[in-house]
Every structure is written in structure tokens, then in C-alpha cells.
Design brief:
This protein is α+β, with helices and mostly antiparallel strands and 243 residues long. The protein has one domain (2-19, 45-242). It is built from 5 helices and 10 strands, in the order αβββαββαββββααβ. The chain has helices at 2-12, 76-82, 120-140, 214-218, 225-239, and strands at residues 49-51, 56-57, 61-63, 84-96, 106-117, 146-154, 164-173, 192-201, 205-213, 240-242. The strands form 2 sheets. The chain has an 8-stranded antiparallel beta sheet with strand order 2-3-4-5-9-8-7-6, with helices on both faces. The termini are far apart.
């Protein structure tokens, strides 16, 4: 299924792989649907936590073992340079629905690091800035064609629990159109697919979540960032545990 592969590809752009001189990433200047909090002044420090990858999340998302093992690890040196002290990384991909009805599937790609984080918002901003650079470098070298749309927006869903959360739409070139069966052959579907990427940050964890609704994505609909933000906040609550 091309949408599943594309979701994983989008997630790869958010690994902490930027240069040491990119620390903090600066503020994106993206629009926000909450009042300005001023840096990470609103980020709650509720003690040290770690990230896990349960077999099931959000009731019906099951971990895909084929896409959750052997994945490229975060460059931990770069993660530390970006502002995460003593980082440890996790990655997994989840799917809801069944392979018998691929158009009803939803995909959730997850990656993150945990450690000690002084400036959570700075690390989140760094990741978005770095992803834009990685996408440009990939396009320039003839690799995956991924475009970040607009600027990251800040969200504060009720389930967030005091972290910073920003989301942005990304579009993936499907190479000439994708049919309803998920093939890249033919032109019965859109030539690009929209996915929502959200990144949260707190004083001990950073996580990105790429959510893709296969049917919506392959019908050419734009990703719903509001829904993605709520999903990410709930997901964070399930994978983030005390250490």
C-alpha cells in the first residue's frame, strides 16, 4: 500500500539529524491557535518520563512488526546537540483496520527521544526546521519528493497535559498517481498525498506522529491538522510513562 510506505517516508524527515550548529532551530513564526506562551513558559515539568511502543494504542491501532523493527535509529549525538541530554530513541509504526480492506486503514508513524530537555519548544522548532531542510536536500538529489505546507501551528487539545504541540501538513509525491488499490501505476488517483505531522515536546520527551487516513489521502483530501493534534495528544498519553 503506497500510503503506508509514504507515511513512513514522511516520518524519516523528522529524525534528529541536523548539524550541531542547528541547535534549537529558532522559532518558525508559524501561526498559532492559542495565546502566545513565550518560549516554553507553559511547558509543564512533571518529572522524568520515557517513551514506549505498546503493541496496541488508541484502542484499535496495532503495531506493524515489519515496519517497527530494523528502522534507522535517531542520531543520538545530533539529538543531544539539538537539546536532548542523555537521549534514548524509539520508533514504531501502527495501523488500524485490516489488510483485507486497505482503503479503510489508518496509519500512524511514531518516532521520538527521551532524556533531559531544557527547552522543549526549541527542540520541536528545530525538528520542523530540519525537516524542511531534509526535504529540500532530498528533492535536490532526486530522492523522495516531500513538501511542507505553510508553517507549523501550535495546538493545545485538552489531552495534551501541559506539553508544547505543533502540527504541519506535508505532501508526498506519489510518482504519477495512485489508484485505489494503492499502486503507483496509472493515473486514477492523485499525484500526491497529504499527511499530518505533529511533534510534541516536554522536559523529558520529544515525539513526532505522522497520521494518514488512507481513503482520504488517496482521494486527494488535505490532512486534518485539528484531528491529528487530538490524536497525537492522546497517543502521547499512552506511550509516555514515568521512569
Amino acid at each position: 500500500m503506497v500510503a503506508v510506505v509514504a507515511a513512513a517516508a514522511v516520518g524519516g524527515f523528522f529524525l534528529l539529524t541536523g548539524g550541531d550548529d542547528d541547535k534549537g532551530g529558532g522559532k518558525n513564526g508559524g501561526s498559532s491557535n492559542v495565546a502566545d506562551g513565550g518560549g516554553d513558559s507553559g511547558v509543564k515539568d512533571d518529572g522524568p518520563h520515557k517513551l514506549t511502543t505498546p503493541e496496541t494504542v488508541l484502542t484499535d491501532y496495532k503495531k506493524d512488526p515489519a515496519r517497527s523493527s530494523g528502522l534507522n535509529s535517531v542520531d543520538l549525538d545530533k539529538a543531544e546537540a539539538a537539546g536532548v541530554k542523555n537521549p534514548k530513541d524509539v520508533r514504531a509504526q501502527y495501523q488500524s483496520g485490516t489488510k483485507d480492506n486497505p482503503m479503510a486503514q489508518k496509519v500512524l508513524s511514531f518516532g521520538g527521544v527521551y532524556g533531559d530537555i531544557e527547552d522543549p519548544e526549541g527542540v520541536v522548532d528545530h525538528m520542523f526546521t530540519n525537516a524542511e531542510k531534509e526535504a529540500k536536500d532530498s528533492a535536490d538529489s532526486g530522492g523522495e519528493q516531500v513538501t511542507l505546507i505553510g508553517s507549523p501551528k501550535e495546538y493545545t487539545p485538552d489531552e495534551l497535559g501541559g506539553a508544547v504541540l505543533k502540527c504541519q501538513e506535508m505532501k508526498v509525491d506519489l510518482g504519477g498517481g495512485a489508484g485505489t488499490a494503492g499502486s503507483t501505476a496509472g493515473a486514477s488517483g492523485p499525484s500526491e498525498m497529504s499527511a499530518a505531522t505533529c511533534i510534541w515536546g516536554d522536559h523529558s520527551t520529544i515525539g513526532y506522529v505522522v497520521t494518514t487516513d488512507v481513503a482520504s489521502a488517496l482521494s486527494g483530501q488535505s490532512a486534518d491538522l485539528d484531528e491529528a493534534a487530538r490524536t497525537t495528544a492522546k497517543f502521547r498519553g499512552e506511550v509516555r510513562v514515568k521512569r
